[in-house]
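Researcher: Here's a chain I'd like modeled. Treat it as a single chain, no partners, no ligands.
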Amino acid sequence: MSIVLSERVLTLADRAQSELAEQFARIDRISQENTRRVLEVFQESRVAEGYFAGTTGYGYDDLGRDKLDEIYARLFGTEAALVRIQFVNGTHAITCALFGALKAGDVLLSAVGAPYDTLLGAIGAADKGHGSLRDYGVEYRQVELLDNKPDLRGLSEAAADPRVKAVLIQRSRGYATRDSLSVEEIGELCRVIRSANPGAAILVDNCYGEFVEPSEPTHAGADLVVGSLIKNPGGGLAPTGGYIAGRRDLVEGAAMRLTTPGIGGECGCTLGQNRLLYQGLFLAPHTVAQALKTAVFAARVMELLGYETQPRSDAVRHDIIQMIHMGGPEAVKKFCRGIQFGAPVDSYVTPEPWDMPGYDSQVIMAAGAFVQGASIELSADAPMREPYTVYLQGGLTFESGRLGVLLAVEELLRA
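Model: Modeled as a single isolated chain. Structure tokens:
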């Protein structure tokens, strides 16, 4: 199948890209700074080829695994880190972090409204089966947004309860319509929480946000950051896994939950995957920049077509997600169909809404990825409910991301 773009779409693309020079330059500057940071840490950690060898079975004395933990801790400015392919996704890593920080009788507080849909079952806010925090005696509360922004006064009052032992901050918007949080804004939330309750652990769901800015939430006061390796920090090469970085006791608590008390992070073989995790992290700042350029380009193209976008194409970015308000279910399906047509894998598949595990409404997902579910690769998804908003993310290269967006536009414009 040959890729053919109409003259109308090509003209639209040229106009959009010509208007984005300043944004692209800003993204490149941040990528250069983060690449410098990563390279310095690799050099300071004396990374050698021997660390790429993997282990099997228990995974005792996996030098490459332990060195990667050290590298993540240095990058995030923390005491410790846990980087493991045994985390099945970001939700799993966040759940382990929460269970490691909380016990029966404690209260978990969400600082910016409800967290991402898949976490509701882990918390117990939605009944998804036995084993939630609620089942183990942990109470859940949340501070609602105020005018679609964090409610600092409400957060201070809610966090002051001495039973609140952990506060969760979700950096990305998830399926909400609020803006994603900058590192500076997360720092402000941390100061409010710390003032109200010095003993509460502050955990940040950092998914989609790594390397978008020159610093991370742990540089701004968070006790722990958690994320998925098949998003930003895996650089498009990590085949699976997640990471946790932060205060040593919190990292160790999460490790005990991932494996079992008494074993923690001492076990966990790497099955020959270490090189991909190292190389993916090294590429991550550049790959994130490619995804950001794809998102900015998509926003501008859709704005020129009259669609509402969030963030706008000229906005400063804090994660790689681009919202496009499509206005109805058919437009959502067409856009996702076009993104799928632009994929290197499964391009011939037609995405349809379905009952996806962990979500409360049908979800349509377009993703033809080398790594299943990898959100750093070009993908688009949407819950099939009002206001019918598509969430676009990823793009291993801007050139391929640009093509995918333009194929989605062709599909939208087709009568």
